[in-house]
Specification:
153 residues; homodimer; disordered N terminus; mainly alpha; 6 helices; elongated
Chain lengths: 153, 153
């Protein structure tokens, strides 16, 4: 693994870029699913943040594994924001998601690109400074979407 | 990708087998996280089941992508069943999880092995009959754990 991380990353990225469609019988199911994917994403991203901030010890294999989960989870929620899924279960999704779909898509894609192109390579590098450098911009790519499209809690 | 699915699978499996630790400040967070991982797992597994049952059209790339998500998600929930996470948020987890940890671990590992060794290769084969053959035993490996360790809803 350690001898060819970039190859592995490229292959896994290609494998996971295939459409991972999941269909939903009810809006409630779509909302629960996207919240779940984002919870998984946020949990593993926060773990990387704790390493970047020195709150927990840096562990290179764990950083890489957490980034793998972030990478996959970053691709999952979006198809669950379909028409009619603005209600049906408690949700922090703002109406702007469906009013400004191009902007929402652009923000979600910017985050996914930041994860794939910066965070994952940094996490796989085995170098804490690289992880630190990539974490902040990735966190800002999350926030850029939350600021406009997620209700304040 | 299609030329070397087993290589990709092996590499991804190795990559994802690394400890993807996520730590939890509160039992509530651990419960929410494991429920989220299991919701993601269940959603993508159900999508494979719909293909296996003929309820939706068989789509080989989508089957492979769904199985990739199942594979990763199958490894996530278990570290979130730590001591003290039997309460703190509504949960279907039964006390037997902490009373019979070896049995619980054995059941979870049997499911993970079934996913990695049977479901994923079948889903990546591009052959619906292989997917059908692998789906039932995998579903039974889920049920074997639910029967003893999950509260009836």
């Amino acid at each position: 693994m350690k001898s060819a991380p970039n190859l592995v990353l490229a292959l896994c990225t290609a494998a996971l870029a295939a459409p991972a469609a999941a269909q939903f019988a009810k809006a409630e199911d779509a909302i629960k699913y996207r919240q779940s994917a984002l919870t998984v994403l946020g949990t593993h991203f926060a773990h990387l943040g704790a390493m970047a901030d020195g709150k927990i010890a840096y562990d290179a294999p764990a950083a890489a594994a957490n980034a793998d989960v972030v990478l996959l989870a970053s691709r999952l929620p979006w198809h669950a924001f379909g028409p009619g899924t603005d209600k049906g279960r408690e949700t922090a999704a703002r109406p702007e998601i469906w009013q400004q779909p191009d902007k929402f898509r652009e923000r979600s894609q910017a985050m996914q690109a930041q994860v794939a192109d910066a965070l994952v390579p940094a996490a796989r590098s085995g170098n804490l400074d690289q992880l630190k450098a990539a974490f902040g911009p990735t966190a800002r790519s999350c926030k850029a979407c939350h600021d406009d499209f997620r209700r304040k809690r």
